[in-house]
Predict the structure of DUF1244 domain-containing protein.
Amino acid sequence: MTDIDHETLHLEAAAFRRLRDHLVQARPDVQNIDLMILAGFCRNCLSDWYREAAEARGITMTRDEAREAVYGMPFAEWKALHQREASAEQLAAFEAARKRE
């Protein structure tokens, strides 16, 4: 890996950590379904991408392990603290957003 590649890797990792921390720690009030409706991804998507990146490097990781790496605690615990049941309006908006993709 060249110096530029190494630096890029560090910058991208720092940006990922800042995004993760912002979504998980600074803005736990924003619901995953709202992120999906507006941005097309959520915290769970980040954990899926994290797991896929691990597997691409030959590291076996379960879905739960990846979620804990992103959420900083078991997902069920974080969900109980911060997530609400989706409303009928949110579910309808989610389905409409999926159809637009």
User: Anything to note?
Assistant: The mean pLDDT is 95.
